């Protein structure tokens, strides 16, 4: 329990140091309910495992959000411990998210990344991964579809995960189509004994930032967002982040190509005053009601 409490405080410290502005040792000490001596020890430990803990001229500390820890900084026992702790922490645990964002995990824990936070998702992904490697069909139980607004079972042949494990590209046997299935919208996964028999029809195309696979038509979008729209868009659709660039105070540009305009149109309807449609956009926002 002592080790878990220590790791918990380290997770809190990482989450705190990621947030601007930088924090003083005194502030950190009160936040963690620890002595200043303990805080200095934690800061040294974070540096030893790979974090670049920065201190400014006012002796305040911070961590850049894009810094990573290499797996080589941990031994197998430490990685196994982190794996079990993170898998049981729950998706809503922001502290666990902080440490996962700092890890570049591979080999025996390759199925864990920053979008896998609880045991259920890990189990589903593990089953799907087994099906991919053994060329077996799977039954996706109680899948919640945004397009059809229905919950149904889908018999599919899994092909490949997206790079961040948000979705699975699979061939749906009933529809005879390659589709992307959001992992979080799966009720369960059943590994069948039926071999995959439609490999010649399997195709994998990278989904757009809203998780939709490529269709016959794509749409170029170029939008100007204020801070409110930018924050809401990246919170609801995290994959949009690399395509949003700051141009001025409280003004951001969002430029990308999408495969399905429906999610963006729904988003726009609630934030018309916060979004400006720019020239070159191939989606008709004004007549989308």
From TrEMBL:
Residues 9-54 form the Helix-turn-helix type domain. Transmembrane segments: none annotated. This is WYL domain-containing protein. It comes from Psychroflexus maritimus. The lineage of its organism: Bacteria, Pseudomonadati, Bacteroidota, Flavobacteriia, Flavobacteriales.
